[in-house]
Design a protein that fits this description.
105 residues; mainly alpha
């Protein structure tokens, strides 16, 4: 039975779980390896791969950069206003094709 997300009522979901509907949570049986709140386990460790560490460093570096180069935007704006801005259609097409190729990999 589909759930209407526009009219969600937590009681309906709970009622279906109690009645054993398709949303019923699986029952746990037997001991688990989950730790209880407040307990400490010396076996739990997280190690990020070299790639993940590199991505995190890059993410931090990019976060510090401005969204765009104000000087470049202003120079292009002036060139357009003065009629000096020229778009090379061949170069533009080549760049679009290169971008498309990169996106498809």
């Amino acid at each position: 039975m589909p759930i209407d997300i526009n009219n969600l009522n937590p009681n309906n979901i709970t009622d279906r779980r109690i009645k054993g509907g398709s949303d019923a949570a699986p029952e746990k049986s037997g001991p688990t390896s989950e730790s209880t709140p407040g307990s400490k386990s010396n076996d739990d460790q997280v190690r990020l791969s070299d790639e993940a560490q590199t991505l995190k460093r890059l993410e931090n570096a990019v976060a510090d950069l401005p969204a765009f180069d104000n000087e470049r935007v202003e120079s292009i704006r002036e060139a357009i206003a003065e009629g000096r801005y020229h778009v090379d259609p061949d170069r533009l097409a080549e760049r679009f094709m290169a971008l498309e190729s990169e996106l498809n990999q």
